[in-house]
Inverse folding.
C-alpha cells in the first residue's frame, strides 16, 4: 500500500504536468486528452459505487456488535459513552477551526473555478437549504431504497442505526445470520475498493490530466493549500488528544509522552491503528501503569469503533470542498454532516485512509450538500494527512483509556 501511495502521488504530478503542457504547447491534443480523462471519471464512479452498501453494512454490523458488547459490563458502556462525547467534541472543533482557517486563508476564486472545471463539474446547482421542519421530517426515510438512490445519506444512516439496534433484539441465530450477511457485504465492498485502488495511478493520472488542462500547474497550489489546511486541523486534534490525556486522564506530560512515543512511531510508519494496538497495550500497561482490566478491554474496543480524528479530518475535507465550490452550508446541513461524521467514524474500517477515503468522506459531503467529484483528485494526497489521522487516533485511544482508568489504578497494577 505504501508503494501504491507513492505511485499515486507520482501519477498526480505527472497528470498535472501533462495537462499543463498540452494546454500550453500542444492544444491539438486536447480532444484526445479529454477522452483519456473519461477513464478518470469511470475510476471515480467505481469507487463511489461502493459507498452506500459499505456504509450501511458497516453501520449495521458495528452497532449490532457494540450494542451487544455493551450488555456485558458497565466498563464497555462507559467507554462507548466517552467515545461518543469525544467524537462530537472533535467534530465541533473541526467545524470551527476549519472554517476559521478558510476565512483567514481563502482560496483564489479563479484558481478554484479552474480546478473544478478540470474535474468536469463546473456547473454546480445550489438548491435552497431545507427548513428545520423538513429536515426533521426527513430524518426517517419513508423509503430507504429511494433515500439511497437520491444520496439521502443522513436518512440512510438513521435507518441503518435503527436496523442495527433492532438486530440486537432478535434471537441469537437470526441475529448471527443478519450480522454475518452484512459483514460479508462489507468485506466484499472492501475487496472491490482494493481492486479499484490497484488502478489508482491510472485513474488519478486521468483525473489530474483534466485538471491540468483547465487549471495548469496552478492546480498544484490549490492541492498544497488543501494538504496544509487538512493536515494542520488534524494535527491540532492530535495535540488536543494529548492535552485530554494529561488534563482528564491524570497523566504526567513527560510519562505520557515517553510511553506514547513508540506508539507514534509505529502509527506514522503503518498509518494503521490496528497495527499499533500491540504497542498501545504495551504503553498502557508498562509505560502508563494502567490496570489490565481496563486496558485489555478499552483499547481493542477503541481501535474497533473510536477514531478521534475521523470526524476532524473528514469534516475538514468536506468544508474545504464546500469552500472550493463557493458553497456556504446552512446550520441544518452542518448539524447533519456532524451526525453523519459521527456515524461514519464509528463504522469506518481500521484501514489506511486511502482505502476508506471515499466511503468516509462522500456521505458527509452529501449530508453537507457538497459535490463529490473532486474526491478522486484529493485521494492522491491523502497519504500526507493520513499520518496525522493515525497519530491522533492512537493518542485519543490512550487518552480515553487513561480517563476510564482513573480511580481504578490502585485496584491492580501490571507486573
Amino acid at each position: 500500500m505504501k508503494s501504491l501511495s507513492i505511485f499515486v502521488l507520482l501519477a498526480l504530478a505527472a497528470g498535472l504536468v501533462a495537462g499543463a503542457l498540452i494546454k500550453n504547447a500542444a492544444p491539438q491534443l486536447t480532444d484526445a486528452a479529454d477522452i483519456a480523462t473519461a477513464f478518470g471519471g469511470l475510476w471515480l464512479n467505481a469507487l463511489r459505487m461502493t459507498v452506500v452498501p459499505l456504509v450501511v453494512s458497516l453501520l449495521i454490523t458495528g452497532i449490532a456488535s457494540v450494542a451487544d458488547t455493551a450488555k456485558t459490563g458497565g466498563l464497555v458502556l462507559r467507554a462507548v459513552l466517552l467515545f461518543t462525547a469525544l467524537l462530537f467534541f472533535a467534530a465541533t472543533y473541526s467545524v470551527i477551526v476549519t472554517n476559521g482557517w478558510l476565512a483567514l486563508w481563502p482560496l483564489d476564486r479563479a484558481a478554484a473555478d479552474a480546478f473544478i472545471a478540470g474535474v468536469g463539474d463546473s456547473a454546480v446547482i445550489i438548491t435552497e437549504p431545507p427548513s428545520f421542519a423538513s429536515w426533521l421530517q426527513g430524518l426517517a426515510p419513508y423509503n430507504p431504497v429511494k433515500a439511497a438512490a437520491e444520496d439521502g445519506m443522513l436518512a440512510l444512516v438513521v435507518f441503518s442505526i435503527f436496523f442495527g439496534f433492532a438486530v440486537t433484539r432478535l434471537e441469537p441465530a437470526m441475529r448471527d445470520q443478519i450480522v454475518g450477511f452484512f459483514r460479508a457485504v462489507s468485506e466484499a465492498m472492501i475487496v472491490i475498493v482494493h481492486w479499484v485502488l490497484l488502478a489508482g495511478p491510472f485513474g488519478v493520472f486521468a483525473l489530474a490530466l483534466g485538471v491540468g488542462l483547465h487549471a495548469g500547474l496552478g492546480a498544484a497550489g490549490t492541492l498544497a493549500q488543501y494538504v496544509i489546511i487538512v493536515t494542520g486541523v488534524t494535527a491540532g486534534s492530535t495535540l488536543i488528544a494529548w492535552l485530554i490525556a494529561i488534563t482528564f486522564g491524570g497523566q504526567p506530560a513527560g510519562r505520557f509522552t515517553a510511553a506514547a512515543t513508540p506508539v507514534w512511531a509505529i502509527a506514522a510508519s503503518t498509518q494503521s491503528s490496528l497495527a499499533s494496538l500491540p504497542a498501545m497495550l504495551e504503553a498502557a500497561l508498562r509505560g502508563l501503569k494502567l490496570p489490565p482490566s481496563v486496558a485489555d478491554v478499552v483499547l481493542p474496543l477503541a481501535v474497533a469503533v473510536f477514531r478521534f480524528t475521523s470526524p476532524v479530518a473528514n469534516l475538514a475535507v468536506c468544508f474545504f470542498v464546500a469552500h472550493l465550490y463557493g458553497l456556504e452550508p446552512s446550520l441544518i446541513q452542518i448539524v447533519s454532516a456532524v451526525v453523519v461524521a459521527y456515524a461514519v467514524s464509528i463504522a469506518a474500517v481500521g484501514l489506511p485512509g486511502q482505502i476508506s477515503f471515499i466511503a468516509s468522506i462522500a456521505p458527509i459531503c452529501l449530508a453537507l450538500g457538497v459535490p463529490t467529484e473532486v474526491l478522486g483528485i484529493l485521494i492522491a494526497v491523502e497519504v500526507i494527512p493520513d499520518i496525522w489521522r493515525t497519530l491522533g487516533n492512537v493518542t485519543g485511544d490512550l487518552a480515553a483509556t487513561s480517563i476510564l482508568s482513573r480511580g481504578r489504578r490502585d485496584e491492580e497494577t501490571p507486573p
Summary: The first helix runs from residue 2 to 25. The two ends are 38 Å apart (CA to CA). Confidence is low (pLDDT under 50) at residues 122-127.
